[in-house]
Design brief:
Elements: H1 3-14, H2 19-31, H3 43-49, H4 54-67, E1 72-80, H5 83-86, H6 99-105, E2 111-121, E3 124-128, E4 159-165, H7 170-178, H8 183-206
Antiparallel strand pairs: 1-2, 1-4, 2-3
Length: 209
């Protein structure tokens, strides 16, 4: 995004709040942009369309943090979408997706690369992840709530130990690494994301029953 737009968004969303409160408020504003496919990962499109997935939302957050003077960097972690419904601990609940979406996962592992960011706060790099919006919490999605602006957030995807520091090249790195997946996994990945987004859109239209 150009500096003029970033400055406009920061002024609109956080005004003259103290710096520490700006950090928290900007995160909350981006987090609560509805999760869904915008047809673009560009942060400008995510802001203007008010919808996005991990890539666009977290890169929008990174650009807004850059605007207020925070040090930031894009991160990627390898994960399996299957773990949304297969892997559960006290920290990671099972996501309650319908059978028509879950069936895609039953075909085999679907790998993906999850975008999140790190920000430099109080002399250390900490995790920030604005992927899922608050209403999705009741369906088991990982939501970062009541963040204090100082400590690691929880990644919204059950990631692996394979993590990449991408500098400010998160979109480029994700595209390159996704292209290395097998054609079958790429096809099922796109199908799963499409069906997941359609289901979430249906929930929104019904007012999240």
């Amino acid at each position: 995004m150009d500096k003029e737009l970033k400055s406009k968004i920061v002024k609109k969303w956080v005004g003259d709040l103290p710096f520490e409160q700006k950090v928290i408020k900007l995160f909350e504003k981006v987090r609560d942009i509805p999760f869904g496919r915008a047809g673009s990962r560009d942060p400008k499109d995510v802001y203007e369309k008010n919808i996005g997935t991990c890539s666009g939302k977290n890169l929008l957050l990174r650009e807004l943090y850059d605007e207020i003077g925070l040090q930031t960097k894009d991160m990627l972690t390898l994960h399996r979408f299957n773990d949304l419904v297969w892997f559960s601990t006290n920290s990671y609940p099972l996501v309650q997706i319908p059978t028509k979406v879950k069936e895609i996962l039953n075909k085999g592992p679907i790998y993906d690369f999850h975008n999140f960011i790190k920000i430099f706060i109080n002399g250390k790099w900490i995790i920030a992840d604005a992927t899922f919006d608050t209403p999705l919490k009741k369906y088991g999605f990982i939501i970062n709530e009541n963040w204090n602006g100082k400590t690691d957030m929880t990644m919204c995807i059950v990631g692996t130990t394979k993590i990449w520091d991408c500098g400010h090249q998160g979109l480029e790195m994700k595209s390159k690494m996704t292209a290395l997946l097998t054609e079958n996994i790429q096809r099922n990945r796109l199908l799963f994301l499409k069906k997941l987004s359609e289901w979430i859109a249906e929930l929104r239209n019904k007012g999240f029953p």
